[in-house]
C-alpha cells in the first residue's frame, strides 16, 4: 500500500487520533475561541441574542474593583502558599531520604491529603478550625476574622500540596548521585555546604517544576476556597477564580465573567512562564 | 571508643531525633483525619460540647450517624455515579490518548501531526476557568446535552487527552523500538493490529501512571461535574458532599459521617495500591 498519499495519511490519522482530536477540539479549542467571542458580548446566559459590545467588558473588568481586590488577594495567597508549600515539601523530602527506618511509611502518609478532593478537605478543615482548634487554643475561630480566613486558606493549601511536592523533591534527591556528594565531602565541604552548594543546585529542575505546579494551582484555587471559607467573612476571602464564577453564574454577567477569566489566565500564564524561563536559565548538570 | 564507633553512635542519635520529628509531623498531617474519626461516633450535642473527647459524654459511643448520613446523602447512588464516571473516563482516556500519541510520534513528518501536537501542548496552560462559561453556553444552551453522565465522561476525556497523549508520546518515542513494529508489519500485521498486539502491551507502566493520575483527578473533580450534572440522582461524591453540607451543616455528627464516607473509598484503595499510586504520581509529575 502506498504510504505517502493524502488519503492514506488522513485514514491513518483518523483511525488512531480521530476520537482524541475531536474531543480535544470540542471541549478545549472550540470553547476557548467561543469564549474569546463571548468577551465581546453582553450575554446574560439566558436570552438567544448576544448583543455585541466590543471591548466594553474589558473596560468593565479593569474598572471592577471587587475583581482586582480578589486578584490582589490571590497574589498574596499564592505568594505565601507557594513559598510555604515548597519549604515544607523540601524539608519533608529531606527527612524521608535520610535512610531512617520506616521512611516509606512516612512518605505514603504525607501524601494522603492529596488523595482527598478540595471540597471534602475544605469541610474537614472547617471543622478543625471552628471546633477542634477553638477547643484546644480557646478564643474565637480564625475563620471568622478577615486575616484569619486567609491564614486558614493558606494553611489548608500547604497541608494539601506539601505531600505531592515532597514526592517530586524526593525524586530530585534520588537523582543526585551519592558519589557527587561524597566527593564534595572528601574535598572538605561540611554536610550543610554540600547541601547548599552541590545537592540543591543539582536539584534545580525539581524546584522549577514544583514552583511552577504550585503557582498554577494556587492561582486558580476554587474548591478549597468554596468549602473552607465560601468567601466569608464579608467577601474578604473571595479569590479570583471564585469571583469569576460568581460574576458569570451568580450575577449572570457572562461576557464580563469571561473577560475576567481571560485576564486571570493571562496573568497566570505570564507568571508561570517567566518563572520557568528564569528557573531554566541557571540549570546545571552534574 | 574509636572514632568509627562514635560516628556510628552520633548517626544513630541523629536518626532517632529525626524519626521523632517525622512522627510529630506525621501526627500533624493526619490530625484532621483523626478529628473526623473520633467525632463520627459521637452525637451532635457531644461534638459541640467537646470535639476532642474520644467518647461522647452524654450519648456515649454511637454508630447511628453512618446509616443516617448514608440515607440522606443517597450514598450508594452517589458512589455508583462517581465510580461509573471515573472508570469510564479513565479507560476512554487511556485508549484515545495512547492511540493519538502513537500516530503522532510515528508520523512526526506529517505537518498535521506536528500542528496537533503543538496545539495540545500549548493548550495545557489554559485553566478550566477560561473554558467553563463557553462550555456551559455551548453544551447547555445550544446543544442541551448537560445532565448526562456520558457528556461528563467525554468532557473529562477531552480535557485530559493532551496531557495523557504527551505522556504516551514520550513513552513510545523512548521505549518502543521501531524495528519491532517493522517486524510485525513483515509478519502480516496492519497498523491497527501492530498497535494493539505489539505496541500497546508494552506501554503498561505508562498506562498505570496515566490511569492513576487521571482517576484521582476525576474522582475528586468538583467544578466541571457541578456544572454538567445538576440533577440530584446524577451527583458524584464531591457534589453530593457540598449539597449535603449546605443542608445539614448544623448536625455535625451527620457531617462527620458524610465526610468520612466521602474519603473512605479512596483511602481504602490507597492502603492496597499505595506503592503504585506513589510511583505513578511521581513519574507522572516528573515527566509532565
CATH architecture descriptor text of the largest domain in chain B: Orthogonal Bundle
| CATH fold name of the largest domain in chain B | MetI-like fold
Q: In percent terms, what proportion of residues of chain B is strand?
A: under 5%
Radius of gyration of chain A: 24 Å
- Rounded to an integer in angstroms, the radius of gyration calculated over CA atoms of chain B is 25 Å
Averaged pLDDT of chain B = 86
Q: How many angstroms separate the termini of chain B? A: 51 Å
Describe the overall structure.
The complex is a heterodimer of chains A (286) and B (288). By secondary structure, chain A is mainly alpha-helical. Chain A is 75% helix and 0% strand. Chain A has a single domain (65-281), classed as MetI-like (MetI-like fold), CATH 1.10.3720.10. Chain B has 288 residues and is mainly α. Chain B has helices at 3-39, 44-49, 65-73, 75-106, 111-123, 128-142, 149-175, 178-186, 191-199, 204-220, 223-228, 237-248, 252-287. The model of chain B has no long low-confidence stretch (mean pLDDT 86). Chains A and B meet through helix 1, helix 4, helix 5, helix 6 and helix 9 of A and helix 1, helix 4, helix 5, helix 6 and helix 7 of B.
Summarize the structure.
The complex is a heterodimer of chains A (286) and B (288). Chain A is mainly alpha-helical and 286 residues long. Chain A is 75% helix and 0% strand.
Descriptive key words:
heterodimer; A: 286 residues; mainly alpha; MetI-like fold; 12 helices; 0% strand; B: 288 residues; 13 helices
Write the layout of secondary structure elements.
The complex is a heterodimer of chains A (286) and B (288).
Chain A: H1 6-38, H2 56-63, H3 65-95, H4 103-111, H5 118-137, H6 146-175, H7 178-186, H8 191-202, H9 204-219, H10 223-229, H11 240-250, H12 254-281
Helix pairs in contact in A: 2-12, 3-6, 3-9, 4-6, 5-10, 6-9, 6-10, 7-8, 9-12, 11-12
Chain B: H1 3-39, H2 44-49, H3 65-73, H4 75-106, H5 111-123, H6 128-142, H7 149-175, H8 178-186, H9 191-199, H10 204-220, H11 223-228, H12 237-248, H13 252-287
